[in-house]
UniProtKB/TrEMBL annotation:
GO terms for molecular function: isomerase activity. The gene is trpF. Pfam families: PRAI (PF00697). It catalyses: N-(5-phospho-beta-D-ribosyl)anthranilate = 1-(2-carboxyphenylamino)-1-deoxy-D-ribulose 5-phosphate. Belongs to the TrpF family. Its EC number is 5.3.1.24. This is N-(5'-phosphoribosyl)anthranilate isomerase.
Length: 229
């Protein structure tokens, strides 16, 4: 079944409400963003979720953009994350360090695409050849998202989904999950699933109303994904 990540949570109330749904990951943004939270806040909310849900809980993911090793380690001291999602220029050596320093921690490496066709850097085939091969031993997921020139993370806009197949083929061969983000919402997620069948989807602004998480939209999004076969 396709995994669901609801990202950009900013309060304990949101965390507990989302954790009551059949979601697989909840996300906290530590990079510069209007949804940025502190490690102390996220740590408290994660521990509260664990108290409330026990083992029946989503995994906690943290979003980072070009944090130094020391900066990321400081976050992990405060916030017991299950997943680190890397949106910057973190290389394979950085991912290897994370895997060795934090056994059991999952790593999602983000590949940023433009709102149009293809990667903002080069063709998918060259990205795979030049970058993904080196990441293979150290990542658990590749996440495709659109590039935000202001914050460096996701922009909340869709990219040309026709770019997905080369990444999907590589991920299947490598035994790595393919997750798609960027402009998803309850109205378009089934089109993505029907056409490309990614292993997971990641949403933030697409389940918001006037910049705030909307539980009706979140519930609708999760329901549509989990009903898809």
């Amino acid at each position: 079944m396709t995994s669901v990540k609801i990202c950009g949570l900013v309060s304990e109330e949101q965390v507990l409400a989302v954790a009551s749904l059949p979601v697989d990951h909840i996300g906290f943004v530590f990079a510069r963003s209007k949804r940025q939270v502190t490690p102390v806040q996220a740590g408290a909310w994660i521990r509260r979720m664990k108290e409330a849900r026990g083992d029946d809980r989503p995994l906690a993911a943290g979003v980072f953009v070009n944090f130094s090793r020391e900066e990321l380690a400081a976050v992990l001291e405060e916030a017991p994350l299950d997943v680190v999602q890397l949106h910057g220029q973190e290389d394979a050596a950085y991912c290897r360090w994370l895997k060795e320093a934090y056994p059991g921690l999952q790593i999602f490496k983000v590949i940023t695409l433009t709102g149009g066709a293809g990667s903002r850097e080069t063709s998918p085939e060259l990205v795979i050849q030049e970058r993904l091969q080196s990441y293979q031993p150290y990542v658990d997921g590749i996440l495709l998202d659109t590039f935000d020139p202001v914050y460096g993370g996701g922009s909340g806009k869709t990219f040309a989904w026709e770019a997905i197949p080369p990444y999907q083929a590589w991920c299947r061969e490598a035994g790595v999950r393919l997750i798609v983000a960027g402009g998803l919402n309850p109205d378009n997620v089934n089109e993505l699933l029907e056409s490309y069948r990614p292993d997971g989807v990641d949403v933030s602004s697409g389940v918001e109303t006037e910049g705030m998480k909307d539980m009706d939209k979140i519930t609708s999004f999760v329901g549509r994904v989990k009903r898809f076969v």
